[in-house]
Amino acid sequence: MRRASQILFVLVMGGLIWGFSVRTTDYELGNKIVGFSVLAGAFVFMPLFLVHRWRGKKLSDYTLTQENLDKMKPRKTEKK
Question: N or C: at which end does the chain have fewer Cβ atoms within 10 angstroms?
Answer without folding.
Answer: C
